[in-house]
Amino acid sequence: MLEDLIHEECGVFGIFGAKKAAELTYLGLYALQHRGQEGAGIVSSDGVKIYQHRGLGEVNEVFSRKEILNQLKGHIAIGHNRYSTTGASSLVNVQPLLITYRKGNLALAHNGNLTNSYSLRSFMEKNGSIFQTSSDSEIILHLVARSKKDTVKEMIQDALLKVKGAFSVVFNTGDSIVAARDPHGFRPLALGRLKNAWVVASETCAFDIIGARYQRDIQPGEIVVINQKGIKSYSPFKSVKHTFCIFEFIYFARPDSIIFNENVDKIRRRLGRQLAKEKPAQADIVISVPDSSNTATLGYSEESGIKYEMGLIRNHYIGRTFIEPEQKIRDLDARIKFNPVRGVLKDKRVVIVDDSIVRGTTSKKLIGMLRGAGAKEVHFRVSSPPILSPCFYGIDMPTKKELIASSKSVEQIRRYLNVDSLGYLSLPGMLSMHSLNGRDFCVACFSGKYPTRIEKNAGKYVLEKTYGQA
Ligand code: SF4
User: Fold this and answer.
1) Which of 22, 77, 106, 425 has most Cβ atoms within 10 angstroms of its Cβ?
2) CA distance readout (Å), 236 to 39, 146, 160, 241
3) Ligand 1: does its nearest atom lie under 6 Å from the Cβ of 430?
4) Helix (H, G, I), strand (E, B) or coil at 396
5) How far is CA 58 from CA 36, 84, 286, 440, in A?
6) Known catalytic residue: 391?
């Protein structure tokens, strides 16, 4: 994935019953950094008081001094890595969001997008609610605060029953953690154990870094309450067809994570193998677009017998604040991130594997760089089907018009990219792999068929347009 085009979504983390819970949350967020780099935050509590720190930037920029973590006291903490799928990139939108309401304090970390946010927010604003952020997550907090139910758990449940779309959420209620997943299960959320503490996280790589053990997934439609009395599970939602996001396997999740009960590395490698079966190529070497395509490329290499080479080197040290030099250099944005290895590419017939093509503009630049480095032939292989439609469930994608495959045929894209051949993994091929077969996945960005009703004004642009904060 040429990641300037589709952005990761968000990562959530929560822990109950550990000394220095905030420090462990910091480490968890660090492991989940790939899911969002625009902002990060932690809300901790000791059962009496609640503490918050959040900021714009990567986790180690936001928590740049030990004293910051030391101030976040208590045995309970939740954290969030943000990429703005809705709402502007300003500090006020950085999560966990924290409110004071009639029951005390409540903090929320949310991964996903609500598909009925526009109507809910409009209704509440007409009735006098004042919103602090342009993020759809705040709607959940408003709904909790407005609930007439008695207990905090009932109020949270009441709120979650009113929202639609994708949510994997973790609340810090001051004396407990509440974790929940929408009934479709779009986004992952796992439950783990660290000695006597309970941990929840978007991906299990956040457990590994702190030495926690994966126990199970939080099930679609499940609400889990963790407090001094232990852990309790509730299933208040009507059961619906599960629609796990297949893009988590293709691109978003880290290959060393378990999500949706599956090992990401295994699935991603199988995508590469299936791609090699469906779209073989006569070539000398196969290279990946590092890093997200490495595992699929390994699969392609194993299946095809074509040697895997490191043909592109990625610069890992580009921070958010990288200042582009004024002097215009051709294809600068691609060159800043990747450099071709001439000794590997020169006079070779090259297969390049990427996990997806979005707009195609950066892919085209990359192909130009391979040719410039002396590649004799370039065969582009994509370990997912053409992306036809945007996502409304928590992944930030360009509009339909900007998606190259929504208006161009594969042959037209091949010509645009200037490659000798182009092959995408087929939709049936993607779903036919043994462990995916028979399970229910959302494939809406590839098929255009959304598994839920999409409200007329749903989508990331709505709040931004309406409230002028884009
Ligand atoms: S539309 Fe695509 S990216 Fe969005 S949830 Fe469905 S499969 Fe995932």
Assistant:
1) 77
2) 32, 19, 10, 15
3) no
4) strand
5) 8, 13, 33, 34
6) no
Q: How far apart (Å, rounded) are the C-alpha atoms in residues 280 and 262?
A: 27
C-beta 463 within 6 A of ligand 1 = no
Cis amide prior to 96 (ω within 30 degrees)? yes
Average of per-residue pLDDT across 177-194: 98
Mutate to test the pocket of ligand 1, among 10, 388, 391 (most ligand atoms within 8 A of CB): 391
Is residue 249 in contact with ligand 1, taking CB distance under 6 Å? no
Q: Name which residue sits closest to atom 8 of ligand 1, judged by CA.
A: 245
312: confidence class by pLDDT, cuts 50, 70, 90: very high
In a mutational test of the pocket of ligand 1, which residue from 5, 111, 246 has the highest number of ligand atoms less than 8 Å from its CB? 246
245 Cβ below 6 A of ligand 1:
yes
Residue 443, C-beta contacts closer than 8 angstroms, at least 6 positions apart: 246, 385, 427, 430, 431, 449
Whether the CB-CB separation of 9 and 36 falls below 8 Å is answered with yes
pLDDT band at 461 (very low <50, low <70, confident <90, very high): very low
Does the pLDDT at position 341 exceed 80?
yes
Query: What is the structure's pLDDT at 458?
Result: 67
Pick from 40, 39, 103: which is nearest to 77 by CA? 40
pLDDT of residue 3: 44
Q: Report CA 372 to chain centroid distance, whole Å.
A: 33
Distance CA 24, CA 33 (A): 14
CB 132 within 8 A of CB 116: no
For the CA of 166, the nearest atom of ligand 1? 5
Q: How far is the CA of 282 from the centre of ligand 1 (A)?
A: 32
Where do the domains of the chain lie, and which CATH numbers do they carry? 11-243 (3.60.20.10), 268-315+327-444 (3.40.50.2020)
Q: Is the CB of 444 under 6 A from ligand 1?
A: yes
pLDDT digits (tens, 9 = 90+) for 93-148: 899 999 999 999 999 999 999 999 999 999 999 999 999 988 899 999 999 999 99
Evaluate if residue 382 carries a pLDDT over 60: yes
pTM of the predicted model as reported, rounded to 2 decimal places: 0.93
Residues 6+ apart with CB under 8 A from 299: 268, 269, 270, 271, 272, 273, 274, 275, 276, 383
Instruction: Lowest mean pLDDT of 252-256, 261-265, 418-422, 436-440, name the range.
Output: 436-440
| Minimal-distance CA residue to ligand 1 atom 5 | 245
Active-site position among 10, 245, 391, 442: 10
